[in-house]
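Figure 2 data, in text form.
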Amino acid sequence: MKRRMHNILQNDGKAFIVAVDQGYGGSCLPGLKDTKSVLTKCIAGGADGFLVSIGIACEFGDVIGNKTMLLRADGGITHLNVNGAPFQLINSVEDAIRVGADGVVCMDFPGSTHEEATANNLGELVRDGLKWNLPVGAEELPRGFEFDKFKDIRTPENIIVSARIGCERGADFIKTHYTGDKASFKELVDSCYKPIFVLGGNARTEFLGFFQEMRDAIDAGAAGVIVGRNVWQHPTPDKMCAAITAVVHHNATPEQAVAILSK
């Protein structure tokens, strides 16, 4: 397991992963229409690897090459669905091994209507991950995506608790929200005993604050970032990747990152 984690984390113990798995829910267009071009530009910009659907893993594995590849294992529903069905495991640890992935990732939604389903999904992956010695990542989101039904509970306290729940459920690394400030995010890192990755979140139009969040998260002990639409929806994904790489691996300031993006 530790050897495979070294395929995810780089020599400095950090990683910048581009999430290109959003197509499983039907929300990847038009940014990922030319998937090969996006992957190539991200690699040119310095991205360490990709979080992918099995379709992308099978079709573009040669493009990804020796970069880190994490397989999205769950999904099963799309934005076209109106029934509010829970996420299901649609790929297994064995599938990930077959396509050459370095790990798998699934959702976990503490406090959501379907918490039991996501917890069971994670549990199944953890059991098989231990069997096959493959790292499992948990995307820990308090109450998931049920913003239209219930109060948003993504407070720093709940984000911290959710991240710790992922550790307790056996995940080898955690993908989660930035808590909003460096002090509370350091508490999250200190409260967990697994590498923490910050997700990119909603599409941004202003990037100084975006890079500031990354800088603060890294300084507080984050292992890196997993960013999707803010890379492949940007007009120049290669420059965005270069800017994020500078923050994650080269201690760039937010201002320096903006300058890289603006070149």
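Caption note: The chain is about 45% helix and 15% strand.
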